[in-house]
Amino acid sequence: QLQASGGGLVQPGGSLRLSCAASGFVSEDYTIGWFRRAPGKEREGVSCSRSSDGTTYFADSVKGRFTIARDNAKNTVYLQMSSPKPEDTAVYYCAATGDHWSWKECRLRTDAGLRDMDYWGKGTLVTVSS
Fold first, then answer.
1. What whole-number distance in Å separates Cα of residue 92 and Cα of residue 88?
2. Do the beta carbons of residue 96 and residue 27 sit within 8 Å?
């Protein structure tokens, strides 16, 4: 199971950290992704972290502002949101697959909305507003 948490109201230019806690499997052995759904918009892939080397692909819309951190002892992955914008307002979900995607697969599947994941949990709402 996966559980995303940490959402809330954040001002533009602020920061917020989302958590993705995994249970029942070891997250560092899985490809972990984040996707989001904003009202009236298509599902959007945000990031894809590879299990083989821990590298992460970020969608262009968040590149340079969002980062990923892992705490393997807590079996948790974090999405650090820096300088959020109002257009980042969405429900954020974390997801996982046991497939070990290549960098190219991460890029293509993230840009396609990360629809190939095996597990995902309830999302957490992030509202970026002043």
1. 10
2. yes
Q: Where are the alpha helices (DSSP H) in the chain?
A: 103-111
pLDDT digits (tens, 9 = 90+) for 61-106: 999 999 999 998 999 999 999 999 999 999 999 999 999 999 999 9
Which of 31, 36, 30 is closest to 81 using CA atoms? 36
pLDDT tens for residues 16-70? 999 999 988 888 889 999 999 999 999 999 999 998 888 999 999 999 999 999 9
The Cα 68–Cα 110 span in angstroms is 15
**Paired strand residues for 33:** 48, 95
